[in-house]
Design a protein that fits this description.
Blueprint lengths: L1 H8 L8 H7 L4 H15 L8 E2 H9 L7 H10 L6 E2 L1 H8 L8 H12 L6 E3 H14 L6 H15 L6 E3 H10 L36
Antiparallel strand pairs: 1-2, 3-4
Helix pairs in contact: 2-3, 5-7, 7-10, 8-9
């Protein structure tokens, strides 16, 4: 009995079997096990309760636990599937799987749509897109004029809002990303194929065109 209890005590709250998680995601069992080692480090970095809280998430993601940013809030919200203010291991793996190179494009597109649907209305409105563009620019340390930001938003809606109702629904979004696959490039983190002990960054610092920064 003592051996079983000792083994179980090593698991963090919300721990799920790596074999089960591998069957639900794009990760292999060995990759899930590597992610668990990473998860434990992150979940004990500040609050030390075996769950990843927003401060720990932001510290890992942006090297800053207190900086306020809409992009970080949205990413955390989508990882926090149970909406309890903390991320358990299972939710961590399932959400991170959307960024795996082997994950189908349609799944990545659906995740990105939820990211931009700030008010959970089932569509992306102009103000939501602009807010996210500004948040991404802030985290990427890029400064663009108001005119250029407006041009990015205008161009996106011109291409994506097919019925001209002033918002982008999920079907329009799917068509938009099908015609513009580069938009989802930040939804793929190549090093998830070879997971290390460094938390993957969702803000890409590669050469980026102004019109590509929205995603």
């Amino acid at each position: 009995m003592g051996c079983i209890s000792s083994k179980q005590s090593k698991h963090t709250p919300g721990y799920e079997d790596p074999v089960l998680l591998a069957s639900q995601t794009s990760f292999t069992v060995s990759e899930v096990e590597a992610l668990y080692d990473l998860f434990k480090k992150l979940s004990f970095s500040i609050i030390k309760d075996g769950l990843i809280h927003k401060e720990e998430f932001q510290l890992a993601l942006f090297r800053n636990s207190s900086k306020k940013n809409l992009f970080a809030d949205r990413i955390f919200s989508l990882f926090d599937a149970k909406r309890n203010g903390a991320i358990g291991f299972g939710d961590f793996v399932r959400a991170l799987s959307f960024f795996h190179p082997s994950t189908p494009v349609y799944e990545k597109a659906a995740f990105a749509f939820r990211l931009y649907d700030l008010r959970h209305t089932g569509s992306i409105e102009r103000v939501e897109l602009k807010e996210m563009v500004l948040a991404l620019l802030s985290e990427s340390e890029l400064e663009l004029s108001e005119d250029i930001v407006e041009a990015i938003v205008d161009n996106t809606f011109k291409q994506a809002d097919l019925n001209g109702d002033g918002k982008i629904d999920e079907d329009e979004w799917k068509e938009f990303v099908t015609q513009n696959p580069a938009i989802l490039k930040n939804m793929t983190l190549p090093y998830l194929l070879d997971i290390t002990m460094t938390f993957p960054s969702f803000v890409m610092y590669s050469e980026t065109n102004d019109t590509d920064i929205i995603i």
